[in-house]
Amino acid sequence: MQGAGPWPPAGRPVGQPPVSQGATNVRWLLADFLGQVAGVSEAVVVSSDGLLLADAQQGVRSDQLSAIVSALTSLAQGLARAIDFGGVKQTMVTMDQGHLVVMAISDGSCLGVYASLSCDLGVLAYQMALLVERAGHALTPQVRSELQRAMAVR
């Protein structure tokens, strides 16, 4: 699925307002990321206040993943403050069947990814860092607001 193409592939879903090029870019970057990294099953971008901004799978699990990512980020930030280690860059939880990796985006939002145990974590971290850099530039306040409104309509 390399080069996932424009988002959404067949036009926008019925009932959704048109979105700007910036919002389209964030969605495309996320969909492209999902196709580029073997072993990744789902990816979300979550705002600093815990709201789902974009997802790569458009499923019920995206809402669950965004809530988990938000909670995990809050816990990690609390830990960093308690031990005075500065800001949180990345958080990873390894389970029996896979990994949850969360990476901070410059605007306070974050990228959360579910990956299988077979996923190469070095490749995953590198590709996530690239996505975070690209998405960080694209997530202007206007684009964040637009993405939040679009996700609420879904």
Topology at a glance:
Blueprint: H1 21-36, E1 40-46, E2 52-55, H2 60-82, E3 90-94, E4 98-104, E5 110-116, H3 121-138, H4 141-153
Antiparallel strand pairs: 1-2, 1-5, 3-4, 4-5
Helix pairs in contact: 1-3
Characterise the protein shown here:
By secondary structure, the chain is of the alpha+beta class. Helices cover 45% and strands 19% of the residues. It contains four helices and five strands; from the N terminus they run H-E-E-H-E-E-E-H-H. The chain has helices spanning 21-36, 60-82, 121-138, 141-153; strands at residues 40-46, 52-55, 90-94, 98-104, 110-116. Strands 2-1-5-4-3 form a five-stranded antiparallel beta sheet, sandwiched between helices. A hairpin with a 3-residue loop joins strand 3 and strand 4 (98-104). The model is unreliable at 1-14 (pLDDT under 50).
The biggest sheet amounts to: 5 strands, antiparallel
Could you say which structural class the secondary elements and strand pairing correspond to? alpha+beta
Mean pLDDT: 84
User: Over the alpha carbons, how many angstroms does the gyration radius reach?
Assistant: 15 Å
State the share of residues found in helices, binned by percent.
40-55%
Oligomer classification: single chain
Strand content: 15-25%
Report how far apart the termini are: 24 Å
- The stretches of 5 or more residues where confidence is low (pLDDT under 50) are 1-14
Tally of individual helices: 4
Described by the principal axes of the CA atoms, the overall outline is globular
What letter string, H or E per element, gives the SSE order?
Answer: HEEHEEEHH
- Per DSSP E runs of 2 or more residues, the count of β-strands stands at 5
Largest sheet: spatial strand order? 2-1-5-4-3
